[in-house]
Prior knowledge:
The structure is a single chain. By secondary structure, the chain is of the alpha/beta class. It has a single domain (2-185), classed as Formyl transferase, N-terminal domain (Rossmann fold), CATH 3.40.50. It has helices at residues 13-24, 42-49, 60-69, 86-91, 115-124, 159-185, and strands at residues 2-8, 29-36, 54-56, 74-77, 96-100, 128-135, 145-152. Strands 3-2-1-4-5-6-7 form a seven-stranded mixed β-sheet, sandwiched between helices. Helix 1 packs across helix 6 and helix 5 packs across helix 6. The two termini are 14 Å apart. The model has no long low-confidence stretch (mean pLDDT 96).
Amino acid sequence: MVKLGVLISGGGTNLQxxxxxxxxxxxxxxxxxxxxxxxxxxxxxxxxxxxxxQAHLTDDTDILEALLDHEVDLVVLAGYLKLVTxxxxxxxxxxxxxxxxxxxxxxxxxxxxxLKVHQAAVDRGVKVSGATVxxxxxxxxxxxxxxxxxxxxxxxxxxxxxxxxxxxxxHQLYVDTIKKVIQNLGE
Length: 187
C-alpha cells in the first residue's frame, strides 16, 4: 500500500476527497501524514478527525524529515501555497503532485491561487476554465501536466460561481489521477 504525505495550507477539501478515496479502497493508499504551512488550517482538523497524524511545519528540511520518518511514497499538494524547494524535489523526483483550479498555463503561477484564479478567468472573459493536475517542479504550476478537465464559464458568472463548478470536478479529477500515478509506481 502506498503511503501519501499531503501538504496543505487551508480548509482541505481535496484532502478530504483523498482521505475518503483511501477509506473506501478506491485508492490503494493511506494518508500517513498531513502537514500544513498554516497553523490552525481546517485541513489539520480533517486529518485529526480521520485519525491521521498531522503537523504544522514551514521549513522544507523539517517537512522532508517528517515525510521520510513516515515512509511516505508519494507527496500530494492539496491547496499548499508554498513553493516546493530542492530538498523535497530531490527526495521525491516525479513523486510530488499538485492540483490547480485552472487550465494551466492560463491563470497559474505565483500569486494565482484560490478565488484569485477564478476572478482572473471571469475578468478575462474566457469561455472555459477547469482544473489541472501536474507534477511539481521548482516553479509554481510549471511541472508536467498529467490531467485536465474543462468547466464552462457561464455568462454572468461571478468568481464564486466558477469556483464552485471547478471544485465539483476537482476532487474526482485529483483522486483519479493519484490512482493512475499509484498504479504506475509499481511498474
